[in-house]
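Hello K.,

You asked for the raw outputs rather than the summary table, so here they are, unedited. I folded two proteins back to back in the same session to keep the settings identical. This is the first:
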Amino acid sequence: MPDDPTAPSQADAAGGTPARPAEPVPGAPASGPVPVGAPAPPSATVPTAEGVPAAVPGAAGVAREEEPVVPETVESPVPGGAAGAVVPRTVEPAVPAPAAGGAVPATPESPVLPPRAAAPRPLVHRHHWIVRLTHWVNTVVLVGMMASGLQIYNAYERFGIRGTRLPLPNPFDMHPLPRWARLGGWLAGGLSWHFFLMWPLVLNGLLYVAYLVLSGEWRPLVFRPRDVGPAIEMQKYYLHLRREHPPQGKHNALQKGAYSFIIALGSVSVLSGLALWKPVQLSWLTALFGGYELARYWHFVAVWLFAAFIVVHVVLVFVVDPASLRAMVTGWYRGRFPSHD
């Protein structure tokens, strides 16, 4: 290639051997010589060792061929550098474009990630402080009432006037109850504990019922005729005759039935206890229960119904919805069921 007659000789400037004139870059506009060390024109490209055109630093709008998936290192000449000088250049792998719907296609370098876990259930306020207070006070007082009542029964393990026996079912007839289940040590001690604990039990129950009435919280607790069908389905689920848990709100149909029953049972227990406590002053109430011995019997039956309710209630809390126990302590609930009906 002939030298450019207009380019100054490096021998004239440095007084040495004339330098080789700069060769034009392929594809660059033929507007004149390219001085050594000067930046390449904006649209210039230079060939690489692998034959892939690479943009000259500073060039804009230069199209590149599709790059390989696996990173590789190629060499490219240094623009304006000495003849034959090359530097390594790393070609980054192309990222696959997202498919329709935002899914990224699976490649060995980018495996498909599992779906994200479902968002946690919201934390909602479930129980008023009055409900929580009366619940735990009732738990402690009721256990004490039951244990002291068993101590009173242990003084005479039969229903009927001395020498007689009422024809009523009683598996504990003339069988003393174990000492660990009794409170008071003897008859007078059992009576003292029973009369002492009955006042907190009655006042606590009145506070709870008053709150239910004034706040309207009694509505989701009352068992209605329309709850018969859902209650049967819930019982099937507990007996493993149904695989899926029936839909429910804050309380299922069986819970509504149990809570309605336990409130009625508490009323019977209190009234029969008053009939035993004041049989003369409240003779009409004692007669309403069929006499003193029958009032004593119904009062005793209520004890075991309360015990059965407590056992079933505790078991179902831990088996079906453990989060409800924490809600009864803090008032806040995050579990599998809603907090409304």
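The second followed immediately with the same parameters:
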Amino acid sequence: MMKKTLANTQEFLLKNGFYIVIALLVTYYSLAAPHFLTFRNFNGLFHAAAPLLVIAGGMALVVLTGKLDISLGSIAYLSCCMGVMMYQWYNASPIVCFFVIIATGAICGAINGFIVVVLRVNPLITTLGTLMAFRGVGLVISQSYEVGLPDQIRELGNAYFGPVFLDVVIGIVVLLALFLVQSRTVFGRHIMALGNNVENSARLGIQVNKITFFTFVSAGLIASLGGILSLVQNGRFTFFLGQGYEFTAVAAVVLGGISLFGGEGKIFPGVLVGVFTLELIRNGLNHVGANPYLYGFVNGGIIFLAMSIDALKTRSRGRIRVIEDEAELGKKIPERNKT
């Protein structure tokens, strides 16, 4: 009984620990910075986090299958590069540029999916290579030039939908749509099945290769949408667009309760909680006047902590199952002795 109670307590802390941390951080930052706990600040916080919100949603799809795609930031960059170059070279309309960006993201995702599924290369190795390759292609095409956007497009970067920024609404709508795909569609159920056990999924008739391929395609397409939000926010195309998003997205996904081992977690509100936690820490450090060079160190520490907690949660679930099995076995033995 004592072992089971301790295991359940540990499971509760691992599951809800970040909610406790968020509450403590909000309390501390509110006391240290008088302008922190305001609607204006939190509205700006989510506004800054909107591109990551979308990209992390795409990352979550891949992670739920038990795989990783660390090229999403570079996909966002290359996709936006193609759209912006279409505008600069051929004076294409914003609508045409939008579809070029989305199509490029899907093609990049298809390249990742092809290498993983057909060539059978490890997803981490694959996307590590394409992370560098996609950004390299974008740098060659753009020659690292910065390109300004038209005024009517730049204005969308700070547009409001009611009291909140428009891109925040777009980010949440994307997450809700992905959650519906995860929970209400056959495709989503197959993704969860792959994350739990690939061999069993294949035995049940699930087309493992097809689902894996289209998961990478979807993630690439969604990453390009996140790149559009980042592009419009900045008001200009720069060579650092999307840089670092891939690793921050992994941290946000894990912080949101989605296991890196796949098959567990919810895109909504999980990804929203993860992104909010990361942005809350950055925003709070800014309000208390912390050294800006500290941000990278803190983000690295958060990523390490998130990975460690995910591993602990997996081990804890295994221990709880063992304890429950032992308890069940202990009940059955006396019954057998009585007979």
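Residues 182 and 188 are 4 Å apart (CA to CA).

Happy to rerun anything if the numbers look odd on your end.

Regards,
P.
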